[in-house]
Amino acid sequence: MTAKTKINIWLYIFIIGLVISGVTAFPLEWELGVLDRYLGQGTAIENTFPELSACITKVYGGLDDTNAKYPFIAYGTDWLAFAHLILAVLFIGPLRDPVKNIWVIDFGIIACVLVVPFALICGGFRDIPLFWRLLDCLFGIIGIVPLLIVKGEIKKLAS
Predict the structure, then answer these.
(1) Given a cut of 90, is residue 5 above it in pLDDT?
(2) pLDDT at 136 (0 to 100)
(3) CA-CA distance, 100 to 92, in Å (whole number)?
(4) Rounded CA gap, 38 and 116, in Å?
(5) What is the mean pLDDT of the chain?
(6) Cα(38)–Cα(18) distance, rounded to whole angstroms?
(7) Which residues are CB-neighbours of 43 under 8 A, at least 6 positions away?
């Protein structure tokens, strides 16, 4: 497999991940409703993971109440979704010309690294449970893997 093929495969994986993350931010209330129905308080999972169940129910209740009274607040998550979709478009540049657009990969690596302190610090200010902040950190940790592979393959391609 050529370096260009490896680059394209890993970039498509990364782009698809960004698109999925973006698209799933739109139906957030519905998604949390499903989670609450199957994992929230009053479900079988509550006995095994009571804190998780309580958290899901609390978040869903908060989102449901907020959307009922102040639906414009959800516009913020619409912009979150938009940002993910626009970032996915950004990575088309390295698909076309990886060597010329290696800066996009560097940008992505920096963004992935910054997810960790952002999630830990801002999540703490917002009373997000530690296990959820660590889950958010995984997006940066997992996201950096394909980008580091791509960067290595671009360096091979450039030499």
Answers:
(1) yes
(2) 93
(3) 12
(4) 29
(5) 95
(6) 26
(7) 37, 53
